[in-house]
Every structure is written in structure tokens, then in C-alpha cells.
Automatic annotation (TrEMBL):
It comes from Austropuccinia psidii MF-1. InterPro entries: Integrase_H2C2 (IPR041588). Residues 61-101 form the Integrase zinc-binding domain. This is Integrase zinc-binding domain-containing protein.
Amino acid sequence: MDKNCHILCQLLIKDCKDPSLLSKLNETWKKAHDKGRFHLLDGILYHRTKNTCVMNLEDITLISTILNECNDSVAAGNLLEDRTLERVKTSSWWPNWKKDVA
């Protein structure tokens, strides 16, 4: 499990704002936590936006699978990048995901 995911799970399980744990998060994760973007349900970490709540991903293999599943065929070219962005956005989240999709 990613260090940041582990720390967030500890914070959410304890429903606390332990400064020693918060200081261990990297900045991207800390900002999202401070905005109340993370939710733990049945042991699965979710990331919330104003319109959706999607599963947080940490495993590079799973991220690659999501990118492949959400991407249209190679023959379609880059014209469908917006569609791929939308598909990933409605299913998954990880830090800097937009860079990985683009």
C-alpha cells in the first residue's frame, strides 16, 4: 500500500487530524485531505470531487489497466483524449492522473 494511502486510512479510521500523521502526507495528498476529498468505505479509499466519488488507485498495474480500459482504440488517435479524461474521471483518481491520461 502506498505510504499516503496508508496514512489517509489511519486518519479516516480514527476520524482525527493527528498533526504527526498529517505531516507525513506529501503535499498533493495533504491538500486533498484538507479539502475533505477522501472517504473510507468498507476499507476502500475514495476521492470525492464536486460531482463524483471515485476509487483511489495506488497500484501502477491497476492504473495502467484503467488507462487501457478507458482509452479508445489506438486507431482513433488523440481526438478522443477528452472522452478518455471523462471516463477516468468518473471511475478513478490518483495524484496527477490528468498528466497520465494526456
